[in-house]
Design a protein that fits this description.
Elements (H helix, E strand, L loop, with lengths): L4 E5 L6 H12 L3 E3 H9 L3 H8 L1 H15 L6 E3 L8 H10 E7 L2 H7 L13 H18 L2 E4 L4 H13 L3
Parallel strand pairs: 1-3, 1-4, 2-3, 4-5
Helix pairs in contact: 1-8, 2-4, 3-4, 4-5
The protein binds shikimate-3-phosphate.
Shikimate-3-phosphate binds next to loops.
Length: about 170
């Protein structure tokens, strides 16, 4: 039985949500995606929240979702790409689980990232993604306990990630 939460951090388009959902199934524990949880609570899409309530509101909501998870049984948590840029969020994750950086090379992210669903990149160009990657990669590296090399496709990524977590038990 896993004793702590597994937090997946990384750049938008790194594969956190698709890997996280399947990891949770493999481990037979719940899966939470912070973006989806915020949308569910607010009854609005992430884009609508950014447009009507602003980024700061969304960042506070991310912290709220982390707080909500504390004290609950272990689950796999896929976090929004900006969540680990807030120091308090990093401390919460470090104190209540293990942080895994889903690390996918920038060229692979650029080849299939959907910008229209991501308000911090909406209407943006590849340059915006490159800038955001360069701004954030240091945050992911600094907070993570483990790094998952997600450069070899979904099946290998999932297998490696599952093994990584199995070895923590
Ligand atoms: C954001 C990333 C998104 C989502 C929101 C803001 C960001 O999550 O939380 O659009 O600031 O990078 P994903 O990393 O799942 O795309």
């Amino acid at each position: 039985m896993l004793k702590m939460h597994i937090f997946l951090v990384g750049m938008a388009g790194a594969g956190k949500t698709s890997l996280g959902r399947r990891l949770a199934t493999n481990l037979n524990i719940p899966f939470v995606d912070t973006d989806q949880r915020i949308s569910e609570i607010m009854g609005m899409s992430v884009i609508e929240i950014f447009q009507t309530l602003g980024e700061q509101f969304f960042r506070n909501a991310e912290a709220g979702v982390l707080m909500e998870l504390i004290g609950k049984p272990p689950c796999v948590v896929s976090t929004g790409g900006g969540l680990p840029t807030v120091r308090e969020n990093v401390l919460l994750m470090q104190n209540h689980g293990v942080i895994i950086h889903v690390d996918r090379p920038l060229d692979q992210i650029l080849s299939d990232i959907k910008m229209d669903r991501r308000p911090t990149l909406a209407g943006g160009s590849h340059e915006n993604v490159i800038d955001q990657y360069n701004e954030r990669i240091g945050h992911y590296r600094a907070c993570a306990d483990y790094r998952l090399d997600n450069s070899h496709g979904f099946a290998i990524g999932l297998q490696t990630l599952t093994q990584m977590v199995e070895n923590m038990r």
